[in-house]
Amino acid sequence: MTKIFAHRGASGTFPENTMEAFKQAAAIGADGIELDVQMAKDGRLVVIHDEKLDRTTSLKGYVKDLTYAEIKRGDASHRFSEKTGSVPVPTLEEVFEWAADAEFLLNVELKNSIIRYEGMEEKVMSMIEAYGLQDRIILSSFNHESLALCSRLNPSIELAALYMDVIYKPEEYIEMIPATGFHPYRRSMSVDMIKNAHLKQKAVRPFTINREEEMKKLIAEGIDGFFTDFPEKALKIKAEM
C-alpha cells in the first residue's frame, strides 16, 4: 500500500523542517516524515533544507559557518508570519528523541552533495543506533557516494538514491550502492520504470506530489510511496480509493 511521507513535515501548512511541521504530520497519521540534515560549525546535525539560512530563517549565511547555539537564536517561521519569533531550527537529535517511541517512518535526507560535510554519515549512523531507529529509518541523498559509505557503516539501514533527471535502468544502477529504493523527481518516472523496479524488489517514492490528480494516479499505479507538502490531503485521497 502506498505510504504518504510528509515532505519536510506538513510543510504546506506549517513552517518546513520544524518540530511544528513534524508534530502536525504525526498528528494526522502520515506514514512517514521526511527531513533534511546539514551540519553546523560545531558539528551538530541541524534540520534544514538549504545550505544557507537566508530562505527559511531570520539569519543569513551558511549553516556550516555558525554554531548551533547561533542558529537556534534565529527564527524559522519562514512564510508563516503569524508564527514569527516562535519557531527554532531543530537538531536531528531533537527530532529522534521526539520520534523514538512512535511508529511512523523517518526519511532523513543527507544534504551533503553541495557541501561535503566530513563525518556526517558516521554521526547520523551513531545517532540512529543510539535511539534504536534502525528499522524505521530511510536514508536518502543526491550524493550516492555518501549512501555507499552509509551502506558500509551499517548494511541493515534502508537507503534510497535521490535524482532529478532520467537514469537508465535505475533499478539496476542502485544495486551498485547498494540501495533498496530510489526517490526520483516526479517527472523522471514512467509506468514501466515502476514495474521494472518492483520486479527487482526496489521501492519507488517520487517527490514532490502536491496535485490531487497526480496523487490518485500514483496510488492507483501501486507506487510504494511519495513525498508531499500536503499529507492530510494525500491521506484523505488514499482512504477514499
UniProtKB/TrEMBL annotation:
Gene Ontology MF, one: phosphoric diester hydrolase activity
A biological-process GO annotation: lipid metabolic process
GP-PDE domain span: 2-238
InterPro entries associated with the record: GP_PDE_dom, PLC-like_Pdiesterase_TIM-brl
Domain of life per record: Bacteria
PANTHER family per UniProt: GLYCEROPHOSPHODIESTER PHOSPHODIESTERASE, CYTOPLASMIC, GLYCEROPHOSPHORYL DIESTER PHOSPHODIESTERASE
Protein name: Glycerophosphoryl diester phosphodiesterase
Organism listed in the record: Bacillus paralicheniformis
The organism's taxonomic lineage, starting at the top: Bacteria, Bacillati, Bacillota, Bacilli, Bacillales
